[in-house]
Predict the structure.
Amino acid sequence: MQTNIHPDLVGKDKIAEAEEILRSCVHCGFCMATCPTYQLLGDELDGPRGRIYLVKNLLETNSMDDQSATHLDRCLTCRSCETTCPSGVRYGRLLDIARDLMVTRVRRPLRIEVLSRLLRWTVPHPRVFGALLRLGQLVRPVLPMFIAGKVPLRQTSVALNDLPNGSADKTVILLQGCVQRAATPGVNEAIQSLLQASGCAVEYLTEEGCCGGLDYHLSDHETGVRRMQTLVDQLYPRLDSVEAIVSSASGCGVTIKEYPEILDSSYADRAAAIVDKVVDISELLDQESFTCRPIRVAVHTPCTLQHGQQIDGVIEQILARAGCEIVPSNEGHLCCGSAGTYSVLQPKLAERLRDRKLGSLLREEPEVIVTANVGCQLHLQSGTGTPVMHWTELLARQL
Ligand code: SF4
Ligand code: SF4
């Protein structure tokens, strides 16, 4: 796609990269069929091809009207379109660059501005977020229904299976994640017990920082990059003494795996060395054997795992090997509507996507739904009484 870059943008940071991505799109439209927002809204501009045209227009005019911004804001950044695209268009990266430009060219509705700031001030700080979450859980019974639905129930400590500790022949760092640590602490306990049973000694970072994904995807690139650099500074000195760095929330995992693309040359080499050792927990446990009662399970693979990290079908294999019955569901490629902060910023669309996803996951009446990212877990759970949990809990918990 030929783009005539506006003279004021020529030579600016990341513009050449955006132009190169635009050039790789051949307008075939294959991506439209797998785009959740296009499926829901049926407007070309709410699908990847239309949004790519909007970004092209932004680069050519150095401006954007409110309506175009709305179409781009409705994008989940689920990257289903990337998995479908035969030309390898890096749509997610293009959107990140566009959103950075939009910050100074578009005035967002006040509601979005306020919510974005609140999210950035609270979520990446586990102590603040944890305290607010506990407060919300305390007053949940008296909150209006539409707010109470957004506050997850307090996760009580769960009894873990008595998994034998394997003799530790390797050491790993387990990343705990900001939201997961506060909202579903049982997940990290479950993962630790599975790792120990698989012969891993588990270590943690003393003051684990946020991966930077939340700020970065909410268009505060400066803060996002600063958080990324801090995590690189924490992890790099430990690299030689560990076999792997384990991420269990796929949203954090995909962000860290993209550090070399995002960080500048002063951090790129260290970031690449870290990424060489970063694995999703499903990659690490792929060859391990566990046992589970023959429970009927529906699996929701988060977009950040299947489209972002290109890991698909592994959870099903591990669970089936353990004795679970995996029930089929259709539209597995579609986003559940959680998408990081999307369920807060675009609640109506997120709810429609969640209900569509739950309809497909619950079709065969599973006893439990499992997923691999805390955001999907909480968002799906807000729409069903069927338990939704991280897949590792199914193997580690006494059910
Ligand atoms: S992004 Fe890919 S699939 Fe979509 S129109 Fe462009 S080339 Fe075709
Ligand atoms: S990232 Fe997802 S919502 Fe956005 S254009 Fe691609 S498929 Fe559609």
Notes: The first helix runs from residue 15 to 24.
